[in-house]
Amino acid sequence: MCDQRLERIVAFWMLVFIRTVTGLAEEGRSVWKKDPHFSPVSETQMFLYDTFPKEFLWGVGTGAFQVEGSWRKDGKGSSIWDRFARSEFSDADSTGTSSDSYILLDKDLSALDFLGVTFYQFSISWSRLFPTGVVAAPNEKGLQYYNTLIDSLLYRNIDPVVTLYHWDLPLMLQEKYGGWRNESIIDIFNDYATFCFQTFGDRVKYWITIHNPYLVAWHGYGTGIHAPGERGKITTVYSVGHNLIKAHAKVWHNYKEHFQPYQKGMMSIVLGSHWIEPNKLEDELDISKCQKSMERVLGWFAKPIHGDGDYPEELKNEFSFLPRFTEDEKNYIKGTADFFAFSFGPNNFKPPNTLQKMGQNLSLNLREVLNWIKLEYNSPRILIAENGWFTDNHVKTDDTTAIYMMKNFINKVLQAIKYDDVDVFGYTAWSLLDGFEWQHAYNIRRGLFYVDFKSEKKERIPKSSALYYKQIIQENGFFPRESTPSLQAQFSCDFSWGITESVLKAELVASSPQFCDSSLYLWNVTGDGLLHKVEGDITCLSSPSRLAVVPWGMRRVLRWIKKTYGDIDIYITANGIDDPSLDNDELRNYYLGKYVQEVLKAYYIDKVKIKGYYAFKLTEEKSKPRFGFFTSDSKGKPSVKFYNTLINNNGFPANSSVCSPSNQEKQCSFCLFISQKKPLIFFACCLFSTLILLLTIIFFHKRKRRKRYKAKSTRCLCISF
Fold this sequence. Notes:
Elements: H1 2-22, E1 57-61, H2 64-67, H3 80-88, H4 105-115, E2 119-123, H5 126-129, H6 140-155, E3 159-165, H7 171-177, H8 184-200, E4 206-211, H9 213-223, H10 234-258, H11 260-263, E5 266-272, E6 276-277, H12 284-306, H13 313-318, H14 327-333, E7 340-344, E8 361-362, H15 366-376, E9 382-387, E10 391-392, H16 400-420, E11 424-430, E12 444-445, E13 449-450, E14 461-462, H17 464-475, E15 496-500, E16 521-523, E17 531-533, H18 551-565, E18 570-575, H19 586-604, E19 610-616, H20 638-649, H21 661-676, H22 678-720
Parallel strand pairs: 1-2, 1-11, 2-3, 3-4, 4-5, 5-7, 7-9, 9-11, 15-19, 18-19
Antiparallel strand pairs: 6-8, 10-12, 13-14, 16-17
Helix pairs in contact: 8-10, 9-10, 15-16, 16-17, 18-19, 19-20
Protein name: Beta-klotho isoform X2
Keywords: Membrane, Signal, Transmembrane, Transmembrane helix
GO biological process, one term: carbohydrate metabolic process
């Protein structure tokens, strides 16, 4: 009996110990289990004006193949991406120069100085150091370039964060061994890493072994949209992933045993992922699908390295062909990272048809995925090693989409730190420069600095996002801006209130192509059924991913319109917020009130001639996003009552307002009568004028006859006298 009790006690404490060390499997699923009564407009859910920890690290990153150019210069060997780009893309010849960082290093350094970053994350081109990939005598020109880069960074008090492998495998290794399909690459990669530690390790304190191995395996050997472009079997994909994990572990142990004791550096591997949300928060099956989706992408590499040394159980159960780790290998692999390096950007979300969505919804909520990592892997220290968004290639320096996404992402990181105790110690904006964007080639741009690839000088021109990121770094976060207190006032009597319904969608998500036609059209539903162009300048408030535009931005836009186009009449034709709730759209009420308040400030304080406000939108579709005041089956939400109150009050009247609701109603009823009865009133006025004219003529005619009669009577009197 005592033995059984002792066994249970030992088992209990062993479970506690295991949970403390590795975290229990699927702990992250609690991220999706939210209190149904939790308010979406609570302080912890709104934009946070606060600063990051004092020691927080701010950086920016690039990949060697994307920006270095000079692929044949100074003895550099070919990589798998050199061959792949030239075979797949018609404009691939420009990758020979690209941003040309190899010969324009000084301009890159000036860009880093401009931003004021504390670290620069870059990758070493393996084939620039060793043209065949095999460690022998290094290419001196390549060696000189990286030595100069590292020394120049340290001179500027910028820490180098060095990635050993960012996808550009030497072509010779692909042709001779089959690339990462062959285990022989593991030892060759370790030899290359050893040379880097020996050569640069005295000056580098942060090392990354491999950048986003999920994309290397999945797109390089599965979908074939990345180099080497193999569209292989699913077994090949997981075999490649297996070898990447073992390669990382070997390099980590190599550094740990032979270099870290005196170089004092840290090492990790950058793991990338999407984020996903259940169709129904209360549905356990949907939550389970979300958990499986994350395990198949992030967990594939994170659980062996940051967990217990083995693959997720879901993955092993689903794929019987999945390579197996021996017990010795599990012990060798687990814990081979000094911090959790995480990538969260468009490469993890595109192309969408290749993602493991499992019928659920993709999301860009960085805060939630950070919480998932915290729960799954026992609160690791996290470096955001890649984050940002993209713009179309025709966008030069006014990259408003990138600014919006950056602001949202960084604030989500701040919320995770302040509210959720997630241990994030640094942030990497991606990318420093415009460059070659993998399967997108030059069709999109991700740089903070604009580069004209066709120009000779290739100047680094700071975009709006660079200026914004510089401000965030200087302030170490977000300082609250001065705002005008809420007004207790009403709009004019003839102010037009309305609601917009749409059947044409200009943009669904941040990655959607935009319409080239920026005009506004009215749909004559009850007439000819055609779209009629609205004349005049149209300014649309829109937001990536259909999230909320910050309310005070509304007032700024209205002031800008007045300043740019003069004192003209303005109608806000569509303004709304995506609220995921079906029953209690509290978030919509909050933003609707804030939006109208800012419109009122623009009207009263800034003297902008705003004539009307139209909320977006009447009814919603069955699928997300949910902008409607009514559900798809015509059930009204609480926001209907809220908006109705705004309309009835014509704004935000004070209790002691001169224009009380009753007086206003009468006044506006009179105004409405006047506007509707204009023809009748005009006819009545004409009739009244005619009557007055006739009466006047009769009056003067009688008066004239009276004078004649008096004159005649006087003359007769004189004659008789």
